[in-house]
Design a protein that fits this description.
7 helices; 7 strands; about 35% helix
């Protein structure tokens, strides 16, 4: 209860995360912080990540718990403007994820996996080695400026990447660290300064 009260005082997104991971209460997206209409307007049909090879990029993600969905994302800049960015996301879920038994979200996960919007990793927990391999794949495609994760479940991946000379680091999640970047991201969506491929697992 104390953690829930702290989450409510921090941000709406913190409340949603607490409710989803601790109370099994699911909500849509960013809890109304992002208009679905604005997000859908940023979708670009046929967007191909391979057409952006060589550009500057930044990698981040949410590794979540070991038996839940984990995601990585990449932000690619536009050399013609400092304002517009293109984003791609990949999502992973283990075969033993309890959400597969959820009446509403279980069939949704199955559908996303069949359509290639989410990757099923074999075993009872998330295969972090596979996720690291996907990050390294991006590192071979782009001029990556930073790889940033919070400190939850990320030590193994970030240490491995850092030891190989890649710009991998952790940040401490909290209002101070995410407030301004979140506001900037939301403003870009509202202003149509983001392109994405319409992956429904991201929305």
């Amino acid at each position: 209860i104390e953690r829930y009260e702290k989450a409510k005082n921090n941000s709406p997104s913190a409340v949603l995360e607490f409710e989803r991971t601790r109370l099994n209460i699911w909500s849509n997206g960013a809890g109304g912080l992002i208009s679905q209409e604005n997000w859908d307007a940023c979708k670009v049909e046929g967007l191909d990540i391979n057409s952006f090879r060589g550009r500057r990029a930044w990698i981040g993600g949410d590794l979540a718990s070991k038996n839940d969905i984990a995601s990585i994302g990449i932000i690619i800049d536009d050399p013609k403007t400092n304002d517009h960015i293109t984003i791609f996301n990949e999502h992973f879920v283990p075969t033993k994820c309890p959400t597969f038994n959820h009446e509403e979200f279980g069939p949704l996960y199955d559908s996303w996996i069949r359509q290639g919007f989410m990757t099923l990793t074999h075993g009872p927990v998330i295969d972090y080695g596979y996720i690291e391999a996907r990050i390294r794949h991006w590192l071979g495609m782009f001029d990556v400026q930073a790889i940033v994760f919070d400190n939850y479940q990320s030590n193994q991946i970030l240490s491995s990447l850092h030891e190989d000379g890649f710009p991998a680091t952790q940040y401490q999640p909290g209002t101070k660290s995410i407030s301004d970047p979140s506001k900037d991201f939301f403003a870009k969506i509202t202003g149509g300064m983001i392109s994405h491929d319409g992956n429904p697992a991201t929305a």
